[in-house]
Amino acid sequence: MTSEGRAAAAVLWAVSAAALAAAAAALIAFYPPPSTFASLYPPQNLHVRPGRFAGPVCNGVQCRLCPYDCFLPEGARGLCKVRGNYGGRIKTLVYAQAAAVHVDPIEKKPVYHMYPGSLIYSLAAPGCNLSCKGCQNWEISQLYPEQAPRRVPVPSALEVRFRPDGSAYGELRSVEADSLPPEDIVRYALATRCKAVAYTYSEPTVFYEYMYDTALLARKAGLKNVMVSAGYINPEPLAELLPLMDVVKIDLKGFNEKFYRDYTGGGLAPVKRTLLGLKKNGVLTEVVNLVVPGLNDSGADLAALASWVKENLGAETPLFFSRFTPNYLINELPPTPLATLEKARAIALGRGLKFVYAGNVPGSDGENTYCPKCGRVLIRRYGFAVLEDRLTPTGGRCPWDGTKIPGIWK
Ligand code: SF4
Question: Of the CATH numbers 3.30.160.270, 3.40.1160.10, 3.20.20.70, 3.40.50.300, which one belongs to the domain with range 252-367?
């Protein structure tokens, strides 16, 4: 071999070795070796509980909670980072591990067709099965559970106080907790005068067991349940969960497969299947689309999305187009121009949808609910505030012409 040949072979060898090392590092990041896993999650760990929707396969288990259907050898975690094969069984690693807990206006979810102006007890555990490049909650959703803060502030009571002029205001009390079991969530939701519990911020599918147990207790206590999700879940777990859910808000990220793959790491088809499942089960469904400039805002995509929602979910399905602000891995794009949201809204209204909203744009006409028959404002909003509500007193009917508006109003 010539000296040039030897040099080329050496370079090739070095490049191959570097590529192998990088691949091994990536593999270890996704599938930590059993010793690491076991030391992070000793049996007495508060948050490790048996997981559901998984079965044994050759040399491991297969999780069937979401469309990834991860194969997990002993000690491995799934793509969501929060479920793993621990001793030959699937475990959730985030049971009762709240990473964020807040009392929010229901408009912040955004849910517009249930109890306008009410408070909703909102919580998230770490983890997500998608990896959206512009995730607006990436500090929670993209966490490994061991990276989450050990203790978080948890709203525990809302006390009514009075100003010297006699007007009332609410004062929120909090406690610090390293574990927030379902019974505490329900107790605190009632004590903070919330009417519902929301499983939100990150992806509730991946903390399924925690959400399910909480929703069961919340329902018994007279609270409503709201799941805010990307809809990336398999049909069987969805079907078991739906009887407990009053509203499901689906974040439909876009309307072409390539965008879904590139931007979220997932796929569009399973999300459509989830939406059809919600329709079939009669669950009140609201759909939101985060409009990202230059990525999912073409007229063709927006029109296809609106037409699909109308034809498959019905003209009365509330549809939101929300403003994107630069976040996580997408910092070079501007916030969505208001004109783009107005264009999206016009397209959807033109396709025959009756309740089309613009989100994250306080002061826009697109925040209001209008009667589809007479065109009058039924609920006037500004940001998360409800300025005027004509629907709650009438139980969801337009006071001028009696048109029934879909939703939960009493
Ligand atoms: S829930 Fe997690 S572990 Fe289960 S299939 Fe989905 S990504 Fe994989």
Answer: 3.20.20.70
pLDDT band, residue 147 (cuts 50/70/90): confident
What 360-367 contacts at long range (C-beta under 8 Å, 24+ apart), as own/partner pairs, is 360/322, 360/323, 360/325, 361/323, 364/338, 366/321, 366/341, 366/342
Q: How many whole angstroms from 10 Cα to the centroid of ligand 1?
A: 41
Our measurement of the distance from residue 189's CA atom to the centroid of its chain's CA atoms, rounded to an integer in Å, reads: 19
In this predicted model, what pLDDT tens digit does every residue of 61-117 receive, in sequence order?
A: 999 999 999 999 998 999 999 999 988 999 999 999 999 999 999 999 999 999 999
Tell me, in angstroms, the distance from the centre of ligand 1 to residue 53's CA.
10
**Number of Cβ within a 10 Å radius of residue 124:** 27
How many CB atoms are closer than 10 A to CB 60? 18
Q: What is the pLDDT of residues 300-359, one digit of tens each?
A: 999 999 999 999 999 999 999 999 999 999 989 999 999 999 999 999 999 999 999 999
Q: Which mutation among 52, 63, 212 tests ligand 1's pocket best, with the greatest number of atoms within 8 A of CB?
A: 63
The ranges assigned to domains in the chain are 252-367, 375-410
Point out the ligand 1 atom lying closest to the alpha carbon of residue 54.
Answer: 4
What is the CA(54)–ligand 1 centre distance, in A?
Answer: 10
Ligand 1 proximal residues by C-beta, below 6 Å: 63, 65-66, 68-70, 78-80, 83, 129, 206
